[in-house]
Structure formats: structure tokens, C-alpha cells
């Protein structure tokens, strides 16, 4: 009997792996929406339970209200941001057309006059006396405009796909709130490990979810707001666009927000706005970067026990390179799963000794 069960189990495992792979391919287009829905549902689940008690146990109504609240918290800032973004893009395009020649003149000589002898010497050594930065920049600008026009339909298509994924996320979040307890209990039954080990596993994953959300996204948003306020104070054109760029690149390891504010600082200094450039450089170094280098590690190490900041760096960088944008969530979760399994293995060794 025992020998006959081995081929049956092998066949079942192979079939399970095949069907699991096909099911993954089905979910892959909506993977980011599903993971984001699970993350938000996990973060706001205590609030859902409180709301459910206030509504005398009406889980469906509580799920609808909780999903609508989260949707509103996401949609209102996004709509406000896109309105400002479209308005500033239109203003930026008109400003570019009206100041095209000034831009080319600046690119022709983007350095102080005191450096003329040094630049002339470099041109002689490199034998590039006939090189014109303005002509080169004009051709690059023309190529960029052509590329932007050609990508318009792709951008509109991506926006439509974003709306679809957002609807899928809200739809999944409703069912996770309503049936999350039963789904989680069923999932626990399918895992062949002891309840104490399950507690270690799911506890670690939950802490990583909190640490990732707070340490990555909240601090990135905070950095974007700080940068946007400073851009407005300094009178920099299109502060909303640059603030959004700062928030987006804050997830990039090592360089982070410096990718945005440092070139702007140098542009201001070379363009003659020395004070503004230095102020932005100091603010970026001692305020914006301070949030990234001090607040974020404190949040992550405080929330994710056992997850060192260096380990999270590789989780984010590797996850982003391997999975794409969804890797910002999957990378830390996979790393947390590895840490939890190592802790479970350590417990098993202690019990067996």
C-alpha cells in the first residue's frame, strides 16, 4: 500500500505544480493589484474589525464602507495630483516654446565665464573646437519630442490599464475584508506546520508588510511633500511634477531622491541662481536625505524585527530588478519568508536536541 501511494503522491505533486504555474500565469496581469489589495487589507484590517463591531457584526456593510474609505483616500489625492500635473505640463510646454532660444543659449555655455580658459584648453586637447552643445542639445530635444509624441497612445493605454487594475484592487479588497478571516483559516489548515511555527511565519510577514508600507511608501511621500514645498518657496517651475518625481525615485537604493534635487541644485548654481542652488543643495542633504537615511531605517528596524536595513536594501533592489514594480512589495515579502523559515528551522533544531 505504501509503495503504491508514492506514484500517486508524485503524480499529484506534478499536477499541482503544473496547475499552480498555469494559475500564476492567469493572475500575473493582476498580480500587483492583488498584492496591493492584500497589503492594504492587512494594514486596515483592525479598523475593519472595529467598524464591524460598530455596525453590529454586519460584515458586508463594513467591507463596503472600508473599501470606499480607502478608495476615497487614494482617489482624491490622485485626481488632485493629475489635475495639477496636466495643468503644469501644459504650462511647461508653452514655457519651453517661448524660451527655446534661451534654453539653447544656456546649453551653449552652461558654466561661469571664469572657466572659459579651462574649457578652451579641454577643447584643444580633445580636438572638438567645432562641437556645438546647443546644436547637439537641439537635436536631442527634437528626438525627445518625437519619442514623446509616438508614446502618447501607449501612455493613454497604460492609464486605461491603471484604471482596470485599480478597480480589481478595490474588488479584491472588499472580499478580503469580508472573507479574510475564513480565507486565512483555510490557508492555515493547508500548511503542514505546527501552530507555533505558523505564528512565527505569519507574524514575520505581517511585520514586513507594515515596515515596507511605512518605511518605503510613507517616507517617500513625506520626502516628496518636503521637496515640493521647498521647490515652491524657491520659485522653481513645475514644483508638483518635481515633487512627484522625488516621491517616485525615493525607492531607488543608495541615490534615492538625490537623483532629482541634486541636478536641479547644480542647474540653479550654473544658471546664476547661486543662493537658491545652495539652499536647495543644503535642504536636500540635511533634510530630505535625513528622512531617507534616518527616519526610514528607524521605521523599518523598529517594525521588522530581524530584517536589517542592509538586507532590505537587497530585497528592494533585487525585487525591483527581478519582478519589476511589484518587486517593491514581493522582494521584502520573499526575504521575510526566508527569515521566518530560518527561524522555524532553528526552532526545529532546538526541539530535536
Describe this structure in words.
- The protein has 353 residues and is mostly helical.
- It has 2 domains: 29-190, no CATH class; 193-353.
- Helix content is 85%, strand content 0%.
- The chain is built from 13 helices and no strands.
- The protein has helices at residues 2-27, 31-54, 59-98, 100-108, 116-126, 133-150, 152-190, 195-233, 239-249, 258-270, 274-303, 309-323, 327-352.
- It is globular.
What is the terminal separation in angstroms?
33 Å
- Profile the largest sheet: none
The tally of structural domains comes to 2
User: What is the share of helical residues?
Assistant: over 70%
Number of strands: 0
- Rg over CA atoms, rounded to whole Å, is 26 Å
> Helix count, per DSSP?
13
* Low-confidence sequence ranges: 129-134
Strand content: under 5%
Order of helices and strands: HHHHHHHHHHHHH
Summed over residues and divided by their number, the pLDDT gives a mean of 75
**Global structural class:** mainly alpha
Shape: globular
Describe the protein's topology:
Elements: H1 2-27, H2 31-54, H3 59-98, H4 100-108, H5 116-126, H6 133-150, H7 152-190, H8 195-233, H9 239-249, H10 258-270, H11 274-303, H12 309-323, H13 327-352
Helix pairs in contact: 2-3, 2-7, 3-7, 4-6, 8-9, 8-11, 8-13, 9-10, 10-11, 12-13
Amino acid at each position: 500500500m505504501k509503495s503504491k501511494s508514492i506514484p500517486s503522491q508524485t503524480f499529484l505533486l506534478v499536477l499541482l505544480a503544473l496547475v499552480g504555474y498555469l494559475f500564476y500565469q492567469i493572475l500575473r496581469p493582476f498580480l500587483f493589484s492583488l498584492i496591493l489589495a492584500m497589503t492594504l487589507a492587512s494594514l486596515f484590517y483592525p479598523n475593519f474589525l472595529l467598524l464591524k463591531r460598530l455596525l453590529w457584526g454586519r460584515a458586508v456593510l463594513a467591507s463596503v464602507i472600508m473599501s470606499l474609505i480607502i478608495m476615497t483616500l487614494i482617489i482624491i489625492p490622485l485626481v488632485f495630483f493629475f489635475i495639477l500635473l496636466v495643468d503644469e505640463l501644459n504650462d511647461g510646454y508653452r514655457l519651453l516654446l517661448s524660451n527655446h532660444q534661451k534654453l539653447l543659449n544656456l546649453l551653449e555655455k552652461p558654466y561661469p565665464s571664469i572657466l572659459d580658459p579651462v574649457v578652451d584648453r579641454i577643447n584643444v586637447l580633445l580636438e572638438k573646437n567645432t562641437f556645438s552643445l546647443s546644436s547637439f542639445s537641439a537635436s536631442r530635444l527634437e528626438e525627445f519630442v518625437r519619442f514623446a509624441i509616438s508614446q502618447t497612445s501607449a501612455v493613454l493605454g497604460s492609464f486605461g490599464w491603471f484604471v482596470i487594475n485599480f478597480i480589481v484592487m478595490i474588488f479584491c479588497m472588499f472580499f478580503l475584508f469580508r472573507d479574510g478571516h475564513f480565507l486565512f483559516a483555510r490557508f492555515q489548515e493547508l500548511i503542514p506546520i505546527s501552530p507555533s511555527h505558523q505564528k512565527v511565519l505569519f507574524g514575520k510577514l505581517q511585520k514586513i508588510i507594515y515596515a515596507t508600507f511605512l518605511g518605503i511608501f510613507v517616507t517617500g511621500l513625506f520626502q516628496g511633500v518636503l521637496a515640493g514645498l521647498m521647490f515652491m518657496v524657491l520659485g522653481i517651475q513645475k514644483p508638483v511634477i518635481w515633487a512627484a518625481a522625488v516621491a517616485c525615485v525615493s525607492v531607488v537604493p543608495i541615490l534615492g531622491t538625490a537623483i532629482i534635487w541634486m541636478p536641479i541644485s547644480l542647474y540653479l548654481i550654473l544658471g546664476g541662481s547661486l543662493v537658491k542652488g545652495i539652499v536647495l543643495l543644503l535642504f536636500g542633504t540635511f533634510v530630505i536625505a535625513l528622512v531617507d537615511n534616518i527616519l526610514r531605517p528607524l521605521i523599518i528596524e523598529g517594525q521588522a524585527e530581524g530584517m536589517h536595513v542592509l538586507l532590505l536594501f537587497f530585497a528592494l533592489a533585487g525585487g525591483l530588478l527581478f519582478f519589476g514594480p511589484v518587486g517593491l512589495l514581493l522582494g521584502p515579502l520573499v526575504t521575510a519568508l526566508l527569515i521566518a523559515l530560518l527561524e522555524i528551522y532553528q526552532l526545529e533544531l532546538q526541539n530535536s536536541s
